[in-house]
TrEMBL record:
Lineage start: Bacteria, Pseudomonadati, Bacteroidota, Cytophagia, Cytophagales
Name listed for the protein in its UniProt record: DUF2911 domain-containing protein
Natural source organism: Leadbetterella byssophila (strain DSM 17132 / JCM 16389 / KACC 11308 / NBRC 106382 / 4M15)
InterPro entries: DUF2911
Pfam families in UniProt: DUF2911 (PF11138)
Length: 172
């Protein structure tokens, strides 16, 4: 009996370590970005995803369906203090970032739940929805890319394939 218990114990330990190792191996490509505008610090964490030659928007990422805007764990954004994003006041804090793409506009969703795997979307936890027009590019962007650009304000860019958006961010 003791021998069976010890064997099962070590099997579960090894399975747990293997699962942790696999998760670490699969998610070690996490990108972290940070930018400041005035006294506002914006931090973003996401997992890039490659197209693999697939057509993305309208196919692999369907239109009018909420998407995690990355792979693996959900994309997260943190505002160190109150911010104004595309004219909408956002309270300081950490949010999961989701996108509902369409051909002409994307709806960027800031959700109050963070830390979840990217398919665990809880729409009742949505705090902000921001509609942004789509920008089209001649040159293909792959993998999925987030970036900060300085204009009069700070711009958060999200782009993949031949499509993307820009969000204006400023301190409140």
């Amino acid at each position: 009996m003791n021998k069976i218990f010890n064997t099962l114990f070590w099997i579960f330990i090894l399975l747990g370590l293997g699962t942790f190792g696999l998760k670490f191996y699969l998610h070690n490509d996490t990108e972290e970005l940070e930018a400041e505008v005035g006294k506002l610090k914006v931090q973003l964490r996401y997992n890039p995803v490659h197209s693999g030659g697939d057509k993305i928007f309208g196919y692999r990422v369907p239109y009018d369906i909420v998407w995690r805007a990355g792979s693996g764990d959900v994309t997260e954004i943190h505002f160190s203090k109150d911010a104004i994003v595309e004219g909408k006041k956002i309270k300081a804090g950490r949010y999961s970032l989701w996108v509902k793409p369409s051909q002409e506009n994307w709806i960027v969703i800031l959700n109050g739940e963070t830390g979840q795997y990217g398919t665990d979307y809880e729409p009742h936890r949505d705090l902000y929805q921001i509609k942004v027009p789509v920008r089209n590019f001649e040159e293909k962007v792959d993998p999925l890319h987030y970036g900060f650009v300085r204009d009069q304000n700070l711009l958060l860019e999200i782009s993949w394939e031949h499509t993307g958006i820009q969000l204006s961010v400023q301190e409140a």
